[in-house]
Structure to design on (409 residues):
């Protein structure tokens, strides 16, 4: 079905259950602002309303399921599954959290099954195209396209000059669970939490999920920072069936107490949409008293030793997909001209070491060289200037909207 030159009547479905994941809002806003699409939005987290959804779907030329509809759960989409499968228009699904998770969490096995049920015309993966095509090869009739995140320059822009920023290295992140078989992010951030290698650095670093910020707060924080730390998102060990992480999680589960397991099970639904505030606050308070290190739900997984888990379960993993990719965090730092120190990676072929970020070896053997580069204000400014100019030319959400529109012709 080829569509005309007028705006495409588009039903954009999203899930409003978190205010600390800026790219959720970025994608919805991008469709609403785009001259390519005549957008109606629908929050799947609200009380199920299949009749209204059915009416909106009948009038649409395109239905879009954004990352927020499926990243952490498929429960929000269940009431609309049949309508989606029987639609008369195009469907594109942006897959969120392309990671393996053990039951009862939603991993790739469940997402692939859902995709096969609703039969999308396009699957928009955050991964490089080769990895995404392999991951979704069993979904009948779907065309896999690589559409990574991008920059929203209306929110993430340089508001404070580099010379006036008060923080050298600032981070607001969270830990990957050890059962994912990837500890790069944690090792990088924890290394910079130490002050032995650079005691003069002014740091504001947190790996506590509760310290993450909403989009405006995150943009403001980045504008206080000369630099930040990041790694490629995702994991080197991506599977279609979640088999390895399920075995790893079970190994960790049996080594914990029933109280810790109760904490994690309750928190798997630990956002405000799924558990009342009073209940969540009470549970958090209880488990902070039990163990101050378990500050947010699911932390019992952190009791596993990451290196031991990799050696035991992932070292001999057969033919895993490389699920590493660029994330919205990289674009947000670029937008605010906050210099990134990162382990080298592919970053979907978008970012290059030495041009767009300062590369640090994974064994930290070149840390003094990296710190010297970071301290060079001229080099740092040249790098952040070039990165922002490049992204504004090629990788804003307006560019992504054109990419989506071109799929329909």
């Amino acid at each position: 079905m080829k569509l005309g030159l007028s705006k495409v009547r588009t039903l954009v479905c999203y899930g409003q259950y978190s205010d600390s994941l800026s790219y959720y809002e970025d994608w919805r806003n991008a469709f609403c602002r785009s001259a390519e699409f005549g957008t109606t939005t629908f929050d799947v987290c609200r009380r199920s309303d299949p009749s209204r959804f059915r009416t909106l779907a009948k009038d649409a030329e395109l239905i879009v399921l954004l990352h927020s509809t499926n990243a952490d759960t498929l429960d929000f989409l269940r009431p609309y599954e049949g309508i989606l499968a029987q639609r008369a228009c195009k469907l594109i699904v942006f897959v969120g959290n392309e990671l393996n998770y053990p039951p009862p969490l939603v991993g790739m096995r469940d997402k692939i099954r859902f995709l096969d049920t609703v039969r999308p015309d396009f699957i928009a993966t955050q991964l490089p195209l080769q990895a995404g095509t392999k991951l979704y090869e069993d979904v009948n009739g779907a065309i896999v396209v690589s559409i990574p995140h991008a920059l929203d320059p209306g929110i993430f822009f340089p508001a404070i000059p580099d010379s006036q920023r008060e923080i050298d290295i600032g981070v607001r992140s969270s830990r990957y669970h050890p059962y994912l078989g990837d500890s790069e992010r944690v090792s990088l951030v924890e290394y910079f939490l130490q002050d032995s290698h650079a005691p003069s650095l002014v740091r504001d670093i947190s790996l506590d999920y509760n310290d993450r910020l909403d989009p405006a707060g995150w943009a403001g924080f980045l504008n206080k920072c000369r630099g930040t730390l990041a790694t490629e998102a995702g994991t080197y060990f991506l599977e279609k069936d979640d088999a390895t992480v399920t075995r790893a999680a079970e190994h960790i589960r049996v080594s914990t107490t029933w109280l810790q397991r109760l904490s994690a099970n309750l928190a798997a639904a630990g956002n405000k949409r799924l558990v009342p505030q009073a209940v969540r606050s009470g549970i958090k308070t209880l488990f902070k008293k039990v163990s101050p290190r378990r500050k947010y739900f699911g932390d019992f997984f952190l009791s596993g030793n990451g290196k031991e888990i990799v050696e035991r379960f992932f070292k001999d993993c057969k033919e895993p997909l490389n699920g590493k990719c660029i994330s919205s965090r990289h674009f947000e730092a670029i937008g605010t001209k906050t210099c990134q120190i990162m382990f080298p990676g592919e970053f979907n072929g978008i970012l290059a070491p030495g041009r767009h970020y300062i590369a640090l070896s994974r064994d930290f053997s070149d840390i003094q060289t990296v710190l010297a580069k970071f301290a060079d204000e001229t080099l740092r400014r040249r790098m952040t200037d070039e990165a922002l100019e490049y992204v504004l030319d090629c990788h804003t959400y307006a560019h992504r909207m054109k990419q989506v529109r071109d799929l329909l012709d």
About this structure: The longest strand covers residues 8-14. The chain has a mean pLDDT of 87.
